[in-house]
Specification:
single chain; about 300 residues; mainly alpha; two-stranded antiparallel sheet; 12 helices; about 70% helix
Length: about 300
Amino acid sequence: MGFFLETVFGGLMAGMLYALVALGFVLIFKASGVFNFAQGAMVLFAALAMARYAEWFPKWFGFDNPLLANLLAFAGAVLTMVAVAWLVERLALRRLVNQEGITLLMATLGISYFLDGAGQLLFGSATYKIDIGMPKDPMMVLENVFDGGLLLSKEDLYAAFIAALLVATLTLFFQKTRTGRALRAVADDHQAAQSIGIPLSRIWVIVWSVGGIVALVAGVIWGSKLGVQFSISLVALKAFPVVILGGLTSVPGAILGGLIIGVGEKLSEIYLGPFVGGGIENWFAYVLALGFLLVRPQGLFGDKIIDRV
C-alpha cells in the first residue's frame, strides 16, 4: 500500500507540472480563441531568460546575493515575457484580427520557431541551472501508519503549492475582475467585443503576457528540477492531451486533466509495464486523449459545441 501511495503521489506531482504548461494553452485559447502552439517555446524562452539573468545580473551590478539575483532575474524574465507578448500582438496578431482559426494557428507555429531561435541566439544553447532554493532532500511521512513510511519529495510539494496558488489566482482573475470578463468576451466574439469598446490589441497583449508569466513559472519549476535545456519545450507535447482531457476553455479542467494523466501514466508504467515491455509512460497520455476525442471531444469541462442550422 505504501508503494502504491508513493506512486500516486509522484504521478500527482508530475501531473501538476503538466497542468502548469497546459494552463498556458487554456488561458490564451479561453481569452483569444487561439490555440497557441508556441506555449512550449515560451516555457523554454522564459526559463532561459530566468537562468541567464540570474548569472548576468550579479556580474553587471556587482553583488553576491543569490536571493537578490533570483528576484531580479524573475522580475527581468517577467518584463521579457511582457515584451514578447507586445511584439507578438504588434507584429503578428494585430494583422490577423478576424481571420480563420487555422491562420492564427499557423501564426503561433511560426512564433514557436522564432522563439526557439531567438532563445538560442540571445541566451545560448547550453544546459543552465536554476536554483531558487527549493529543498532537494526527500522526507519520510506516515511512518507509524505504513511499514517504512512514505518517501516524498519536498521539491515536488513546493512545486505543487506554487502551482495551486497560481491556479487560484488565475481563477479569481478571470471570474472576479473586469479585465478577466473582457478577456472572456473577446474569446466569444472578436467583432462584438470591439463594437462595445473593448480594445482588442490591449486584451491580446494582456492575455499573452499572462500566458508568458505562467510559462515562466512552469519553466522555473522544470528548470529547477531538470536544468534548463531545449528539451523543456517538448513538455508542451505532454500538455496537449492534458488540454484535450480537461477541455480547451477550462482552467480547473487543465488541472484535473494533468493530475489524471500524471497518475495514470505512473500507475500504468509500474503495474502494466512489465506485461508489455515497458514504455507505457511515453504514450499513455496520447491514447487516453484519443479515447476522449472519440467519446467526449470537448473534454471533461469544456464547452459543448452546438451548431444550429
